[in-house]
Amino acid sequence: MCEVNIKMRFCSLCKNMMYVKVDDETNLVYYCKFCNNSLTEPKENGSILVIDDNKVDDNIKYRQYENKNIVHDPTLPRVNNIVCPNSSCTKKDNQDNEVIYIKYDFANMKYLYYCCHCEHFWRTN
Questions:
Q1: DSSP H helical ranges for 1-125
Q2: What is the pTM of this model?
Q3: Which of 25, 40, 41, 79 is 20 to 30 A distant from 59 in Cα terms?
Q4: What tens digit of pLDDT does each residue of 43-73 get?
């Protein structure tokens, strides 16, 4: 099998990371979710490598994202309207909530949550 070398690219207009999709099974298209800019690259050697997350066990899917260093990743979405369920959370009363969320199960729309104050991970069912 031939593999396509997919590179991380950044939008020339807004400098955000570009995402990859396949266009009509012939080209790789890098596109920006923020400004809709796109860059098309022809498929190399007639093949595209597709990586599929096919893990069955829900705990394996969940645990693979549990990493205390995610707080340092500026590309992960953060919200302040979710309250940490940890009863011993270290957030001060005058501080805003800061929770990172990651979709770990795309088929069932399940999310992992991480409190940036007390480093507590949780998920909802």
A1: 58-63
A2: 0.55
A3: 79
A4: 665 555 555 555 556 777 777 778 888 999 9
